[in-house]
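for ur thesis appendix - Superoxide dismutase. copy paste whatever u need, i formatted it the way the template wanted (i think)
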Amino acid sequence: LLLVFCSFSRSSAKLVAPLGCLVSRQKHTLPDLPYDYAALEPHINAEIMQLHHSKHHATYVNNLNVAEEKYKEALAKGDVTTQVSLQPALKFNGGGHINHTIFWTNLSPNGGGEPKGELMEAIKRDFGSFANFKEKLTAVSVGVQGSGWGWLGYNKEQGRLQIAACANQDPLQGTTGLIPLLGIDVWEHAYYLQYKNVRPDYLKAIWNVINWENVSSRYASCKK
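the 3d part is after this line
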């Protein structure tokens, strides 16, 4: 099946909901950040943010468009072999686009601290305390072998929060069924220029810029 993702205009950066479905054939575009590249300093420096957004995320967007165009041609020809061969590129680049579009909104220069309201109650219910949740998500993220993501997701069937890790750019919902609420990118390009190979230091710092309002909005949306 053709993987269909949302397209974004340059004015649609401040998105709360994760990428949904559009059955249009518009090309995907790189969303603007809702803050300046230097806004997350000193926790994540401007050089990292600029390269991460304008180079890495942009590459996923471009490669996704190329893969989808090839898939469209193969579909029209009934070329099942090519359709199958394109699946890894669609998953990798589509996942990269989905993951990063969520990630940028999960961060904020006004972030940090702890969540409030329903999300906080759910965290206490499912993890015992915010401290326990933070420790578990950090440990899962540190433990990702090679490149990947640590996630807080919502299990709609069970009505509870879950922590998960995904390899490479595997999208959380597409590979685990969990609805993504908070993603932590642990690819080296997300932190190496500032934290070198010390991933735990990056993970300690990133909690200072987590946008809990965004995460709470995602939680409220997926419960409807």
